[in-house]
Amino acid sequence: MKRHFNILIKIIIIILLLIDLFILIDWGMLAQKYYFIRKFELIPKSKRTEFQLPYNPKLKPIVIDGCSFTYGHAIEVYESFGYKLQQKTKRKVYNYGISGNGIQHVLYRVQHMPLTNDNQEPEYLIYTYINDHLRRFLTDHDFYSWTVKRSIYKVKGNHLVLRTEEVTPFDYLKMTHLWQNFAYKRFNMMSFDQKFDIFEIYAREIQSSLQKKYPHAKFVILVYHPFVVDPHKEEIQTTDRWKELEKDGIIVIRLDSQKYKFLADKEYLSEMDKIHPSGKAWDTIVPIVIERLGL
Q: Which DSSP string do the residues of 92-143 spell out, in sequence order?
């Protein structure tokens, strides 16, 4: 009986995939979707992971993590967050930002890889948050194909459970437009507070895992202004719930007030895509981070 049921499920999945093939217009997008599902893109390997700048080896390093904002997408290396942070502080900066990543990927790296050379304890782990990260941990496969990543954790109560890397037939079903549309509608039906509840679980888990690995390291969340980039307009809002995480000892640097709305102005955005922060934006933000953290 179970064998027949599995065969039936596979037939349904094949039919859905065939339907999906016919409604897809961009065949390059399809190839990208099938490529990413077969691997975790979690361990950064780029010329931006470390910067060719002088630093003081007596000072504790800094780790930065997040998505394309942290990586420095659409700008030159010397314009990026990590480069300017190392240049200003004379501390070694490790940049683990990867385009399309979210807070779940940050947690995975904290739990499963050394964050510095020789596993030296960092002073800070700075995670740059944008509102779209709420979507990225709630949909198993992101609605926009360029951020397709397989889910890493399942939320069970107030805890996170690591998923297996084994690809199942159900994972292929989740690649179809039908499933993505369903997941996207489910996401839209959730309130901001419901999404933030899950976000808090991830943030606290990072804090706990970081302190287990590096007892004196501090976790920092840099909240980027929501008007800069947000493909889901209903998510353009701020929240005072960051105070809940601050009570747990997480340092929150907020750029989400009207005071920083200028970060959405043309000169503060990359000339290449008009979405990602420009070098001028990081010229403004880095001194704020340095002052707040006493670097």
A: -EEE---TT--HHHHHHHHHHS-SSGGGPPPSEEEEEE-TTHHHHTTSSS-S
Q: Which domain holds residue 77?
A: 37-138+190-293
Q: What is the pLDDT of residues 173-211, one digit of tens each?
A: 666 666 667 777 777 788 888 889 999 999 999 999 999
What per-residue confidence (pLDDT) applies to 26? 40
pLDDT of 249 above 90: yes
218 found inside a domain = yes
Q: The domain that contains 44 carries what CATH number?
A: 3.40.50.1110
At 47, give phi and psi (nearest 5°): -70, -10
**Distance, CA of 136 to chain centre:** 7
Asked whether residue 62 is assigned to any structural domain, the reply reads: yes
Give domain status of residue 225, yes or no.
yes
Please state the pTM of the whole predicted model.
Answer: 0.83
Question: Between 161 and 220, whose confidence is greater?
Answer: 220
Q: How many domains does the chain have?
A: 1
